[in-house]
Amino acid sequence: MANLILILGDQLSHTLSALEDAAPGKDLVVMAEVHDEASYTNHHKKKLVLIFSAMRHFARELEDRGFQVHYHQYDPASQCQSLAQVVQEVAGQLNPEKVVTTECGEYRLDAQIRQWHKQMGVPVEIRPDTRFLASKDEFARWAEGRRQLRMEFFYREMRRKTGLLMTPEGDPEGGHWNYDGDNRRKWTGKPPAPAPFRVEPDQLTRDVIDLVETHFSSHFGTTEDFHFAVTADDARAALDHFIDFALPCFGDYQDAMSDDEDWLFHSILSPYLNCGLLEPMEVCEAAARAWYTGQAPINAVEGFVRQILGWREFVRGIYWLRMPDYARENRLGNQRPLPWLYWSGDTHMRCMQRAIDSTRRNGYAHHIQRLMVTGNFALLAGVRPEDICDWYLAVYVDAYDWVELPNTLGMVMHADGGYLGSKPYAASGKYINRMSDHCSQCAYNVNRTTEDDACPFNALYWHFMDRHRKDFDNNPRMRMMYRNWQRQDEDRRKATLERGDWLLAHLETL
Ligand code: FAD
Ligand code: SF4
């Protein structure tokens, strides 16, 4: 035989660089469901079902294309509990010329694979992941010499590079680079949000659901109502569904939250993009087509493309530029353990309860819930970054270290000192009330700050601002809030801080 080609669970793309010159009938593809990868965190049950089932379907497709596939099914009694053990065993039996793989998305595993040639005595060729639009080197070149990195400037480079939403003259379509200012509407039930795209589980997926229920019963979440796509064809159908039914309103309601709608106008494509069933460029091109054909307005299409071409590529660039030190950053010195309510959802705070409940049922919450509800609360409460990062990595079906870590540690917790975002996304209950209908259903009063029934976000917000004055005093984007704080009379400020102290001491009971 010639090469042993290793394909990981988030590399389920037929265009994968490791498969580029692969010879069906000659090379052997290895795929493995192993205990070490499935259990290093408390992965949501739906995430395990999605990845294992998508892997099994992908292996079948490779076999249909003539490849010989060595597929290691999950077996807790197996001698091989890590990827290295599986590869070593197969390599020992077949003596390949080399192991070929595509660079993996997680620093921890990447560091291990880079040592395999020494441990296994077989050459290991690691190819770049060409599914991303900016390579690691390209991002590093862009970042070089910049004191602070700003997504907006990187995004414009990417627009120019890809030509997406650009006129032939080289200007942004519609005349502006960014339509974020138009994308802040509250949703009041109209137009109705589309039903999410659903795929009924086939036999392969049902087998995986049984496996997860048997071996991962203590993991977070539920397998009930599993309806994610597990093949590229179905993921493309999910993309079409989004373009037809949700994209036209995506921009308007991008920041909205609803007490009884889990998905609103979001695409729910991250689970597929991140495991390789969809590629970023095909998704952006489909959205751009909707603008050119008049199917969706520019604020929706540009807003959507920016998330993928801008944010997704940007956070990946930062991850690889700053790891491994990035994971240990804690510039605000937060040490509070993660409150148990993140796992139980047992809280009177309606916004938190709804976000955690959706997370538990679906393995999904949309961006504003992650950023401005569960994330905001962790920031205001001073949760240890490591704890909250572990939570986000575990609970979402789209969670992989390269994308979860910068979003949580950088964007939410500001633990990187502002490298990713120029100011923390801290907000009081007022913001949540403006963007949702949660507060009208809540046990707390969003208009109060110091009383026993006052919204916890309010006093915690000012407590956060006050205790981090030294960290943010010089930040021009925070000056107005500090002036507002200073303008309140002293007794009021004292009562707010006392209420904040009390809340911090009683987080589990809120
Ligand atoms: P849409 O709202 O429809 O957006 C379209 C696409 O844009 C997404 O599918 C996603 O690929 C991309 N995107 C949007 N925002 C971001 C972003 N900030 N970073 C990277 N890509 C983005 N996204 C993940 O894919 N995996 C994660 O583990 C993850 N963890 C997060 C943790 C926190 C604390 C926060 C605040 C955000 C996190 N995000 C993560 C980003 C974002 O919340 C999700 O990508 C988005 O909610 C996925 O749902 P969607 O596909 O419906 O997105
Ligand atoms: Fe959340 Fe406060 Fe509104 Fe309750 S009142 S839903 S805790 S923001």
UniProtKB/TrEMBL annotation:
Known InterPro entries for this protein? Crypto/Photolyase_FAD-like_sf, PhrB-like, Rossmann-like_a/b/a_fold, UV-DNA_repair_photolyase
Q: Name one Pfam family in it.
A: DPRP
Instruction: Output this protein's name.
Output: Cryptochrome/photolyase family protein
Source species of the chain: Marinobacter lacisalsi
